[in-house]
Amino acid sequence: MVMAEDRRLDDELRAPFIYRDDDTLDKPFQYAQFKRLLRYMAPFPKLIWGAFAATAGGIAVALVTPYLIGRTIDVAIAGKRTGLLAALTLALLALYVCNFAAARVRIYLTNKLGQNVILRLRQDLFSHVQSLSFDFFDKRPAGSVLVRIMNDVNALQDLFTNGIINSLTNLITLFGIVVIMLSLNVRLALVTMVVVPFMFLLSTRLRVLIRRSWQVVRVRMSRINAHLNEAIQGMRVTEAYVRQEENQRFFERMNAEYVEKFRRATGLSAVFWPIVDITGSVGTVLLFWYGVHLLTAGEVTVGLLVAFANYLGNFWTPISQLGQLYNQLLVAMASSERIFEYLDTRPTITSRPQAPALPPIRGEVVFDQVVFDYAPGKRALHGVSFRVQPGETVALVGHTGAGKSTVINLLARFYDVTSGRILIDGKDIRDVDLATLRSQIGIVLQDTFIFSGTIMDNIRYGRPDATDEEVIAAAKAVHADEFIRQLEHGYFTEVRERGSRLSMGQRQLLSFARAILANPKILILDEATASIDTHTEHLIQLGLRALLRGRTSFVVAHRLSTIREADQILVFQDGRIVERGTHGVLMRNKGYYHHLVLTQYRFMA
Ligand SMILES: Nc1ncnc2c1ncn2[C@@H]1O[C@H](COP(=O)(O)OP(=O)(O)OP(=O)(O)O)[C@@H](O)[C@H]1O
């Protein structure tokens, strides 16, 4: 067993692509977790009681009709009492009609209940995930967060829609049938019920096997999807490195595995209903074989036998649904465990209780002996100190991994310092309300995020209550107006797919407009490095100047022009500030900065 596992692992390691499958697909039942799930139904008592009331129809039909049919045969037909026959037939018909109406109401109510619960759960989860801090997202790919909010919540839908409500009525139905049968004839009842345990086994164990085999099929399918997605996106690399044949072999192997799993799943599914039928028939045979004995002994009537056969038929639906519930619960345990794991994760960065709001700031920033570890042993800053006056522009420069982004992450309080302090206008940023802190800090990232919508909407993201005129004024201020007007519908041009149809330079100009509209006192800017045509480059320099004017700005600078104009340059190396000053002074010193400019920034001049 261990060897087989090792071999499988070996194979996977040698495989050119490795796809991690979904987490476990089902888990043993846990009462505490189930109770926690049930709590999501609590806000909808009317729907729950309504649905229960509506299921009464189904219970009545399952319990009463076989008896009525038996009486019809024994009394009305055998006694040739046509009046009674008509009355009983009408009663049966009425029962079926009532049941039909009740079933419709029940389906409506249970669906509404299920949808409401799912809606609430998903909203809770999304709002909670939004509140989580950067360290949470550092550890998880966006895809896996998406899967939990969508798939894992969806996996609970059946349970909330049908599972819980139906299972209670099913238990009542089963209990009712047993009681009625026993009270009609104990021996016949016991013989009829011989097959019931088999029905339970079928509907739980065999169903679990079938469901798992289909899950395996789905996992294989999603592996193929993941591979295809990668293969298509990376087609240029594949062709450049002439890897087509190898990829083809890998793809064929994945496909073959899929087909094999699919065969197994269909094979298992195909035996399910025949086995159910056989079990049912065995039950019926037993019933009639023993029933005929009793009939000849005059102990039972034909009608009673027929009634029992009908009761036997009515066993299957509730047992089958309880089996489904059993399956739903196993799946729900796995999904809800993952959902609750997220819901139980507390944001690491929060405002202290009763933290005062940060009043409108002037923009003085002090880093005082700031040490920061991303994880124990992963020190990114080793005691960084500096002071920035309101309105100053600070350029952060250094090699990749030197700690520049870490400084800005700490300033916006996306992480908390490991030791030391960060002060804004003399206040430690951990002591003030987080929202009032962030709302006074503007952030422009390298990769500007463009949301689907119009250019106007995208700029307005900086300040949702801005008027169209204010948006346009902002765009003009950062010299973005010119290119926007040249677009097909100007400010009302729709941008899709993260703005892929805009050039890098245009996206930067948009992000400047967004930031200047928000008008923060402190601005953080991670300058994009993409090479841009000289005209746009010129516009960007003008736009940047306008954006930086009058606010404390921290720029992770990549353009020499930006660095030159900074009031203060902080030069980072391995998480420490190794030099500081203005461009002129630092160049004359001929130190690390001088070397950096000559090697790294010369071409950007
Ligand atoms: N989320 C993170 N988790 C763990 N370590 C990180 C994380 N982000 C950065 N680091 C590490 O911290 C150190 C400083 O990284 P930082 O991103 O601040 O560098 P940088 O100077 O901004 O580099 P670049 O110019 O490439 O963005 C690096 O060693 C980096 O590997």
The profile of the biggest β sheet is: 6 strands, mixed
Gap between N and C termini: 63 Å
Task: Indicate how many domains the architecture comprises.
Answer: 3
Q: On the 0-100 scale, what is the average pLDDT?
A: 86
Cα gyration radius (Å): 35 Å
The CATH topology of the largest domain is what? Rossmann fold
* Class derived from helix and strand content: alpha/beta
Number of helices, counting only DSSP H or I runs of 4 residues or more: 22
Strand order of the largest sheet: 6-9-10-3-11-12
Shape field: elongated
CATH superfamily of the largest domain: P-loop containing nucleotide triphosphate hydrolases
Low-pLDDT parts are 1-14
Number of strands: 12
CATH architecture of the largest domain: 3-Layer(aba) Sandwich
CATH class of the largest domain equals Alpha Beta
Percent in strands: 5-15%
Short structural description:
By secondary structure, the protein is α/β, with parallel strands linked by helices. The chain has helices at residues 2-14, 31-38, 45-77, 82-131, 134-139, 142-154, 157-184, 186-192, 196-233, 235-240, 244-296, 302-343, 404-411, 434-438, 455-460, 468-477, 481-486, 504-518, 534-548, 560-565, 583-589, 592-601, and strands spanning 365-373, 379-388, 393-398, 419-424, 427-428, 441-444, 453-454, 494-495, 522-526, 552-556, 568-573, 576-581. Strand 9, helix 19 and strand 10 (552-556) form a beta-alpha-beta unit.
